[in-house]
Amino acid sequence: MKTENNLDTDQIKGLVWRLAIPSMLAQFVSVFYSIVDRMYIGNIAGIGEIALAGVGICGPIVTMISSVAFLVGVGGSPLMSIRMGEKNHRAASQILANCFLLLTILSVVITVLSFMAKGKLLMWFGASEATFTYANDYITIILLGTIFALLSTGMNQFIICQGFAKVGMKSVLLGAICNIILDPVFMFVFGLGVRGAAIATVLSQMASCTYVLRFLFGNKPPIRITFGNYDWQVMKRVLVLGLSPFLIIAFDNILIISLNMMIQRFGGEGQGDMLLTCMTIVQSFMLMVTMPLGGITGGTQTILGYNYGAGRPDRIKKASLHISGLALGFTTIMFILAHTVPKYFVLIFTKNEAYVELTVWAIKIYTMGIIPLALQYAVVDGFVGMGVAKVAITLSMFRKVIFLGGAALIPIWFGIDKIFYTEPVSDFISVAVSVTVTFLVFDRVIGKSGAENKGS
Prior knowledge:
Layout: H1 12-42, H2 48-85, H3 89-124, H4 129-144, H5 146-160, H6 165-189, H7 193-217, H8 232-299, H9 301-310, H10 313-340, H11 342-346, H12 353-366, H13 370-385, H14 389-414, H15 422-455
Helix pairs in contact: 1-2, 1-6, 1-7, 1-8, 1-10, 2-3, 2-4, 2-5, 2-8, 2-9, 3-4, 3-5, 3-8, 4-7, 5-6, 5-7, 6-7, 8-10, 8-12, 8-13, 8-14, 9-10, 9-13, 10-13, 13-14, 13-15, 14-15
């Protein structure tokens, strides 16, 4: 079967760019799922700011649920890339079949459990009496689309890892376009407000899911979804490797939830709701940084995994350098935008001058460390791509601990309005540690790969 990219023979620099750019653009487009919803919601006459705070509370909960897609997708796709590098297509096919079954089961279980706990979760995670109604309306409908969201995101990883980066981008683009079109229809034409935004999102996720599954069940990819040959040991290994990206995303959102809880606790219902609205907009901007950045480092994992399986450390090292350089270039551009034109981004969500002024300041503080953050993503996703889960999890969790410590102590020591400094503090410290660890262990890891494969 012909693929867009030959992981075995194509020049590394070209491979990195051809896989990274579509994945980055796909994640840029994916950001519009949340940004478009929040943009329309923030501009609802009379209730926009409060409704936006309510949806902001739902954001990390929804993303935490969605992280299960990466538990299976990013856990299974590097393993499949390694098997393809070893020319073991039977094992690669077994991995895909097991991942499809595992993700389907997890989607159903998560939907049921989330419905049972959603009311308490919203209150625990920062909802006030003023924002609860909007948060509950939004999350109730979004949860109905859990299976479509998880399957479209998780199984898309198995399209990208086979070299079809453009197909993966098109699946995300389809969902985003549907969302952009349907949002104003359901929100304003049908007068459904926040519920309309949620309905539009679910329908868009259904469209993406249909596109992804149709491709993976079709004849074009070398490895297609099949039924049977299920093995708990295969699923277990996927879950172990996927634990790192899952924890990265899940704990990122647990930390955001912690920020929301601290804001509501120390800010009270008045200042707290205002700060929550600002934090929602700040997090929307950060999604435009972290999701495309993850597209660059995650979309190129297949190069590392394939060559790790093929025992070619020289190509792994070249790819790692190009991936890091591309990631640094992207975060540098986003840093410049964050510190020169953030007001134009904020005005998309609200025209209230008090909210605009506070949020512009917060974006500049929150993004102080995003340039070196590129190296954190490159290091962690690089180790995940080669199946070295322990190192990836350790480095990722270290960053979360620093962030959590800042979220707990900064409001107490300096006041709740300084809570936005938690992000740059954790970025600078964690990157310094991750880069140091990489210098110490990277050559040994890729050298071991080459030695093992030469001896086999």
